[in-house]
Design brief:
Elements (H helix, E strand, L loop, with lengths): L2 H9 L9 H10 L1 E5 L4 E3 L4 E2 L1 E7 L2 E7 L2 E8 L4 E2 L2 H4 L2 E2 L3 E4 L3 E7 H10 L1 H29 L2
Antiparallel strand pairs: 1-10, 2-9, 3-8, 4-7, 4-10, 5-6, 5-9
Helix pairs in contact: 1-2
Length: about 150
């Protein structure tokens, strides 16, 4: 895939809203292209997470495994990002991920992503505000649902 195609795909990812063309170019240049056949595992729950993935084509199933049983969490299709927490925090995978169909992905390493944020501190501030707003919206949704679970 051409660099311009990678830039176009990355520009559609919500996490990168507000990134300049140059920043998207740096991201795309540092991204690794991965192809997975159907049913190939991308990562396992509890693996160390050092990269995020953008789905270019195909679908990735996210699931939890308990007592040898898979519990579906989500399906990520083209333009979706999988494992984005790995870009900003030293963490472990919260779910397992597997190609539902053959899939093409862009792998974005935390090291490369942090380098971009260090070079462009204004972008880091924008990203922080976006993540903070998303987190606060999640907290609000949880608080709205809390009465349903009270005895």
């Amino acid at each position: 895939m051409a660099l311009d195609d990678d830039i176009r795909i990355l520009s559609g990812v919500r996490l990168f809203d507000g990134f300049t063309a140059e920043q998207l170019r740096l991201l795309a240049f540092g991204a690794e292209q991965i192809s997975l056949p159907a049913h190939r595992r991308l990562f396992r729950e509890e693996d160390e997470a050092d990269a995020a993935y953008v789905v270019v084509a195909g679908e990735i199933s996210l699931f939890r495994e308990e007592d040898d049983e898979r519990r579906p969490v989500a399906v990520a299709g083209p333009g979706a990002m999988v494992g984005e927490l790995a870009l900003i925090a030293d963490t472990r995978r919260l779910t397992s991920a597997e190609a539902r169909s053959s899939a093409d992905l862009l792998r974005l390493s935390r090291k490369m992503f942090r380098r971009i944020l260090e070079e462009y501190p204004d972008t880091a501030v924008i990203l922080y505000k976006r993540i903070h707003a998303d987190f606060m919206a999640l907290v609000e949704r949880i608080e709205q649902m809390a009465p349903r679970f009270e005895g």
